[in-house]
Design brief:
single chain, about 260 residues, mainly alpha
């Protein structure tokens, strides 16, 4: 399998989607394995089934998805090849991340005091390390309690960013699987598509009269569930092609990074 050598392979910068990449550059096989478990993989998979984005690939970056194509490239490639040609460039931090600093001058102290995203502490070195760590942790907890939850992408310098979402990877996988089955079996009913996808309904649920649900009720509930999830899958794919991922909200506009 061919891996593309690019500038980022020589210059190590962290990737917020790849655990372990903050400390060191990972071996190729390990990096690919971790990338496949990340949301970058599912964004890639959504683009693979987006007719609009595939047309952009066929026209070598022309069309409505041109801006996204400039970062995400041709998704018709196998994932490892795509990752090293495009993916890691799109999601890798372009600048070193902020780090904890040791203040060594008055000027440095003044610079840090003016920054709203910094907490400046003075720690006596005559204090035991365990005591100092405990007090620092307490102060950090107090400050964080007064701020919004940390959004790791807010200060990111990556070209493409994952938006804050409650969607789980398992849900994304199920939506894409359902979408794929709908394309493969266009003549199947929504109930049949749901059965093929292994969608599980609460078969112990009872109707308003306390009786167990009938087969007709089960078919109706499955049809409703599949219809809703296919609509979510459609929004997920459309938003991915618009540069927004992961989102199942309708009609989101393209985000410029």
């Amino acid at each position: 399998m061919e891996f593309i050598n690019d500038d980022l392979i020589d210059e190590h910068l962290p990737n917020k989607l790849i655990p372990g990449s903050f400390r060191q550059r990972l071996p190729v096989e390990e990096e690919v394995a971790k990338a496949k478990k990340s949301l970058a993989f599912w964004w890639y998979r959504c683009l693979q089934v987006s007719e609009e984005y595939l047309r952009c690939c066929e026209s070598e970056g022309q069309g409505p998805c041109a801006e996204l194509y400039a970062d995400m490239g041709d998704v018709r490639r196998p994932f490892p090849n795509w990752w090293f040609k495009y993916g890691r460039k799109a999601f890798t931090e372009q600048k070193p991340l902020k780090d904890v600093l040791m203040i060594e001058s008055f000027k440095q102290a003044d610079d840090q005091l003016d920054k709203a995203d910094r907490l400046v502490l003075s720690i006596p070195l005559t204090m035991r390390k365990t005591t100092a760590v405990r007090k620092v942790s307490k102060l950090l907890a107090e400050v964080h309690a007064q701020r919004d939850p940390v959004d790791i992408w807010r200060a990111s310098t990556a070209k493409r960013m994952i938006i804050k979402s409650k969607l789980r990877q398992k849900t994304i996988e199920q939506l894409l699987r359902l979408w794929g089955l709908r394309q493969r079996f266009p003549d199947d009913s929504l109930y049949e598509i749901g059965k093929r996808a292994g969608i599980e309904l609460d078969l112990l649920a009872r109707d308003t009269e306390g009786e167990e649900i009938s087969e007709a009720m089960e078919r109706r509930r499955m049809t409703i569930a599949v219809s809703r999830q296919l609509l979510q899958a459609s929004h997920l794919i459309s938003n991915a092609a618009a540069g927004i991922f992961p989102s199942v909200k309708p009609a989101l506009k393209t985000t410029k990074q």
